[in-house]
Amino acid sequence: MGKTTAWTNWARTERAWPVRFERPDSVGAVQRLVRTAAGAGLPIKAVGAGHSFTGIAVAPGVLLELDALSGLVRVDRERNRVTLRAGTRLHDIPRLLEPFGLAMPNLGDIDRQSVAGAISTGTHGTGMAFGGIATQVVGVTMVTAEGELLTSDAEQEPGLLPALALGLGALGIIVEVTLQCVPAFVLHAVERPEPLDELLPELLDRAAAVDHFEFYWFPHTATALTKTNHRLPGDAPTQPLRPVAKWVDDTLLANGVYRVLCNTGVVAPAIVPRVNRLADRLVGDREFTDRSTRVFTTSRTVRFVEMEYAVPLEHLPTAFARIRALIEERGWRISFPIEVRVAAADELWLSTASGRATGYVAVHRFFREDPGEYFRAVEAIMTELGGRPHWGKLHGRDASSLRGAYPRFDEFVSLRDRLDPGRLFGNRYLARVLGE
C-alpha cells in the first residue's frame, strides 16, 4: 500500500486526500494496481504534472503518480514515430528526440505537463495548419478497468483511437503513447507590440498567412503583443536570444517584476490599468531564431487561474471584441492578459477543434484574485457563440450543456459505458461533464 498524503494541483484550485498514493514504475505495476483498486471498490486515477485547473485528475481513491513511468520505449525511424511512457514530461521529450533528428510538430507555451495528461485534456499550441497535441497521437496503450492492456493504432482497434487519444482519463489509465513526429526544425520568431485596433480587422488573415500566430492583450491597454513564428529547415542558421537578454525578458521581467505588479494590483485594484500599461512596455519586442522547442515554450512562474474557450474560427474576432467590451462595461480591473490562438480542425471525438477550424480565447486571473464573476460572464459569451471549454481549464458546463457542442459526445459516453461501466476511473468532474 502506498502512503497517504494530500495532493494539490499547480494552480491550487483542486485538492484531494487519496486513500492510497502509488508510484508505479512499469506497465505491469499499473495493471496490478488497477486490479487491486477494482477489487477493493476504490476509484483509481492517474495524475501527471497537475497542470489542469479543473478537477479532471482528482483521485478520491487511489492516486497513481506516473513520474517513474517515463522515457522512450522505441523509435520507428522509417515513419518518424516515437513511443513514450505516459508519465514523460513534455520538456524532456526534445532531449529524447534529438539523437534521432526529430521534433514534435507543435507545442503549447507550457511544457511542464506529462504527455498523457497533455493529450487527455486537449492541450494545444497555435497555427492554422496544426491541431492540438492529441492530433499527433498515432497509437495509445492503456490499462482497462479489468486490468488488461488495450492498444489502439492503425493495426489494432483503429476505430477507438479518436476517442482514446483525447479521453479525459475516463476510459482507462494510459501507459504508452506513440507520436507522429517530424524532422527537427527551426523557428524564426518575431515578437512585437502592435496597435490592437489595427490588428483586429485583419486577425484571421494574419493567422492564415504564417505558420504560427498568436497575440496577448493586457486589458486597459491599446496594444496587442503579437507572436509570429515561421518554420525553417532543421539545418537553418540560428540566432538565439543571448542568455543575459533571455534571462532579463523571461525571468526578471515576465516573471519576477510581473509577480510584484500582480500582487500590487490585488491590494490596490485602481492602479491595475497603469500596471498593465507598464507591463505592456516591458515585454514583447524581440526577434530571434532557434530550435522549435525553445521558441514554442516559455517559463511561467507567476501563479494564475485560467479559463479557455474554443469557438468556430469565424467567430474569433467577435468573441474577443465582446470580451473587451465586457471588461470596459463592468469596470473590472483585470491584471492578467487575454491570449488568442488558432488551430486546424480535427476528427478527435472530444477535441475542442473537432470538426471545425477553431479560434481560442483564454482569460486569466492572478491566483490571489477571485475569477468567478469575470469567468462566468466570459463563459456566457463564448457559449452563445458555440464555444467549447478546454477540459483542463476552469468552466461551469455540464453534460447536458456539452452534449450539443460535440457531435460524437454520445458515442464517447457509450464507449465509456462499455470500457468502464463501474466508473473505476471516475470522479466528480467527469460525472459533471460526461454524466454519471
Overview of this protein structure:
By secondary structure, the protein is of the alpha+beta class. The protein folds into two domains: 72-183, Uridine Diphospho-n-acetylenolpyruvylglucosamine Reductase, domain 3; 185-396, 3-Layer(aba) Sandwich (Vanillyl-alcohol Oxidase, Chain A, domain 3), CATH 3.40.462. It has helices spanning 27-40, 93-97, 115-121, 161-164, 196-199, 203-209, 243-267, 272-282, 292-296, 316-330, 372-384, 399-402, 409-419, 428-434, and strands spanning 7-8, 15-16, 20-22, 44-47, 62-65, 72-76, 81-85, 102-103, 137-143, 149-152, 173-180, 182-183, 185-195, 212-217, 223-233, 286-291, 304-312, 338-343, 358-366, 388-389. It has an eight-stranded antiparallel sheet with strand order 16-13-15-14-18-19-17-20. A hairpin with a 6-residue loop joins β1 and β2 (15-16). The longest helix is centred in the middle third of the chain and has 25 residues, at 243-267. The model has no long low-confidence stretch (mean pLDDT 92).
